[in-house]
């Protein structure tokens, strides 16, 4: 579905490379979480999958990115956007209309969606993101979190096969953050939508993603199953990644020969670990 080969990218005017020799294959229906310290290249990776790099942000681009067989350098960004829906970190720059309704139908109308279908997709997208009550509100009266949901609804309305999101819960409280991830899971499970999401909240991400990619200095440091990757907690911490305490505790206990079970990813599993360690 997404095939990245030896991708390196340097933004125009920058000294160093934001991405260096990245190789990655993402299959249809994958749910991939991307983590890494600030400046590791996470946003640039998201931009590269959506074609924002090198079409919007220009620079030196080496290697290739193919999305559903389309080479992103050769494909027009608006054409690519029908396959890849992107939700960026800077929500303000992504929202262009006056009201929520206009924002959600803007993209649909741009792509010449028939009228009846526009109405249907609008209602569906608002419902999925839980913002039906905001339909007629002016965007400038909304909170950051509400705007984030509008940006996601506008992308969902286009029903892309791939969704890439850059810290979609950045402005959201824990409850809304979980709702967004539950929505992503629903899209992934019910419609086979491929999800690539950059997220700082590692425990939340671990609960929903099937695979974790760790970026470091523009390259891929780890790429694998969630437990396997989080098992490298000491190395992740050295990279400046905020590894959940319970994850590193498991590693410390393992190092001391006190625990040989799986890395706990939630409270229930942490409890099981504690019981095992105490022999209860
Ligand atoms: N629009 C841009 N123009 C020039 N340089 C950029 C731009 N965006 C990012 N960079 C540079 O590219 C490198 C990688 O940045 P990127 O934003 O991809 O990292 P990140 O892991 O997403 O970081 P953060 O967690 O802080 O968002 C950094 O050195 C950054 O300064």
TL;DR of this structure?
With about 280 residues, the chain is an alpha/beta fold.
Fold and architecture overview:
- The chain is an alpha/beta fold and 280 residues long.
- The chain is 42% helix and 22% strand.
- It has 13 helices and 10 strands.
- The strands form 2 sheets. Strands 6-7-8-3-9-10 form a 6-stranded mixed β-sheet, sandwiched between helices. Strands 2-1-4-5 form a 4-stranded antiparallel β-sheet.
- Helix 5 packs across helix 6.
- The N and C termini lie far apart (46 Å).
- 39% of the residues are buried.
- Bound molecules: adenosine-5'-triphosphate (ATP).
- Adenosine-5'-triphosphate binds next to helix 1.
- Belongs to the ABC transporter superfamily.
- GO terms for molecular function: ATP binding; ATP hydrolysis activity; ATPase-coupled transmembrane transporter activity.
- It comes from Luoshenia tenuis.
């Amino acid at each position: 579905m997404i095939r990245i080969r030896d991708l390196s990218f340097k933004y125009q005017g920058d000294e160093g490379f934001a991405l260096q020799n990245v190789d990655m294959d993402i299959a249809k229906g994958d749910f991939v979480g991307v983590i890494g310290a600030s400046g590791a290249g996470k946003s640039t990776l998201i931009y590269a999958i959506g074609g924002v790099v090198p079409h919007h942000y220009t620079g030196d681009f080496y290697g290739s990115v193919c999305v559903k067989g389309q080479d992103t350098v050769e494909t027009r960004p608006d054409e690519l956007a029908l396959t890849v829906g992107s939700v960026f970190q800077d929500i303000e720059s992504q929202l262009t209309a006056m009201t929520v309704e206009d924002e959600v139908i803007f993209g649909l109308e741009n792509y010449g969606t028939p009228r009846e279908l526009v109405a249907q997709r609008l209602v569906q997208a608002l419902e999925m993101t839980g913002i039906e009550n905001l339909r007629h509100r002016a965007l400038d009266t909304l909170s950051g979190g509400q705007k984030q949901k509008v940006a996601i609804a506008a992308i969902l309305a286009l029903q892309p096969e791939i969704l890439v999101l850059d810290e979609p819960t950045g402005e959201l409280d824990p409850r809304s953050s979980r709702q967004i991830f539950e929505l992503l899971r629903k899209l992934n499970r019910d419609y086979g939508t491929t999800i690539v999401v950059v997220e700082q909240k590692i425990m939340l991400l671990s609960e929903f993603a099937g695979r974790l990619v760790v970026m470091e200095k523009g390259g891929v440091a780890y790429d694998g199953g969630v437990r396997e990757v989080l098992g490298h907690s000491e190395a992740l911490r050295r990279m400046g990644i905020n590894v959940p305490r319970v994850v590193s505790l498991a590693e410390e206990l393992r190092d001391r020969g006190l625990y040989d079970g799986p890395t706990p990813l939630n409270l229930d599993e942490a409890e099981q670990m504690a019981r095992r360690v105490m022999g209860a």
